[in-house]
Amino acid sequence: MNTKLPFSTLHFTMNLFKTLAITGLVLYLAYIIFFTESNCPSSDFFSPLQHIFTQNSQTILPPPPTSNTTNVSHLIFGLVGSLNAWWHRKAYIESWWRPNVTRGYLFLDTAPTAELLPWSAASPPLRVSDDISGIVRESKHVAPVMVRMVHAILEVFREGDQGVRWIVMGDDDSIFFVDNWVDVLAKYDHTKYVYIGGHSETILSNFYYSFDQGFGGAGFALSYPLAAAMVKDLEGCLKRYPYLNSADLITQYCVDELGVSLSDERGIHQIDLKGDISGFLSSHPQSPLLSLHHFDVVDPIFPAMDRFQSVNHLMKAAKADQSRLLQQTICYHRPTNWSLSVSWGYSAHIYEKVLPRSFLKRPLETFRTWIKKPHPPHYMFNTRWPPFSDPCDAPHVFFFQSVENETDHIVSTYVRSSPRGLPACSASGNHSADFISRVQVVSPTTKLVEAGRSECCDIVHAGDNNVTEIKYRACKDDEIIA
Questions:
Q1: Residue spans of alpha helices (H) in 193-269
Q2: Distance of CA 288 to CAs 101, 192, 207, 267, 323, Å?
Q3: DSSP β-bridge partners for residue 384
Q4: Which end of the chain is more exposed for a tag (fewer CB within 10 A), N or C?
Q5: pLDDT tens across 229-264, in order?
């Protein structure tokens, strides 16, 4: 038989439960306040609920202040060279080294002779490499010079500089673009184990050595925690691999032992190329320029200049706007069917035909392979092959001449290097660009932020006074460059 409670009894029971629930909630909140603001340990019983409440309460608080952004003072450069080569490589380093700003050391194999003393204040502080003959003798290492180069990591670390986040190693015949290194390294977590480097431009170099190594002549970066872990047994690592004849490969093996793989940056250039590299520099990957190596092997990069003059000339553009240096920007002039490609601070090309951006991104193969190989593929990128005799595909070439900083923009000027020596492109209307003697590029004074997309440009004047003027701007949403 079903029975029902009297209304008064039911009402009393419901009120009792409400009272108990409210009382329990008040006691729990009092517990949270008391125990979270005191040093008393919380009980295991309440901890799950306490986690829920405290987690929700934290979401309304402002985020904690972030640590300061990586700047040039957080980088230490370790540059390895030889006394014999220093005489003619000194100008390379002094072109980019900033005394009292850039931090680091130059390690020579022997002490400098009297002719080099007193040591130039425009050069990095001098150190003489450690005597590593004991390591070589004990391990019977096949490449003592390579042991010295890798051992320099330990010697840089041992200097004990304060506030270091990154150790950047490189050779004395490389050009470093320090501001871009700072910006790129700022993207990475310097508190973790990080190994940053670049590949060779040639397939065979990567194959002969390793696709997993950073080619160190052009520079590689180790986060401070990774370097600290490496130096604990770096000499042991050198002894474990006496058969390796490459400093870069030895470094990779030592990094691999700590479970770390290479993070590739496309702006680090080993320049395993020979001859005229203007075609390569005129179609730079869409990535900040970090370094250029092997300057003693390639031709001077500017006409009518030697190698040292060329480096200093390029650094004029770098001082004005390092973020845009060599970054390729492409735009079109429909009335004449011209395509214009600018490698900022280095060159400008005018083509008498509308050519796809995918085509113009491929470097003109003005250079030769580092290692002789009879058949392609040679390179880690697509190229446009010579001869460049088709008037619709061959560019009018202009090289960087000057740069001026205005109030709200930068004007860089590029002058024709030589006559093209070809007729006009008949397929696109015979609109010759032979009369153009200069290209002027107007770009913003603001730093170019790497965001996975190039800038866009407009051709303001196609040929007034024999000058073509181009103005850079941010691309519009969904804008197609074609």
A1: 203-208, 224-231, 234-240, 247-256
A2: 21, 23, 25, 5, 6
A3: 364
A4: N
A5: 999 999 999 999 999 999 999 999 999 999 999 999
Higher pLDDT, 318 or 6: 318
Q: Which amino acid is at 371?
A: I
* Cβ neighbours around 384 below 10 Å, total: 18
Answer for the pair 445, 409: CB distance below 8 angstroms, yes or no: yes
Sign of CA dihedral 100, 102, 108, 114: negative
Per CATH, which fold does 321-473 belong to? Cation-dependent Mannose-6-phosphate Receptor; Chain A (2.70.130)
Q: What percent of the chain has pLDDT over 90?
A: 80
What does the alpha-carbon distance between residue 382 and residue 393 come to, in Å, rounded to a whole number? 16
**Fold entry, domain 72-270:** Spore Coat Polysaccharide Biosynthesis Protein SpsA; Chain A (3.90.550)
Measured distance CA(403)–CA(401) in Å, rounded: 7
**How far is the CA of 53 from the CAs of 37, 46, 60, in angstroms?**
14, 11, 12
Q: Model confidence over 277-306: pLDDT tens digits?
A: 999 999 999 999 999 999 999 999 999 999
Domains of the chain by residue range: 72-270, 321-473
Q: How does strand 175-176 pair with strand 126-128?
A: unpaired
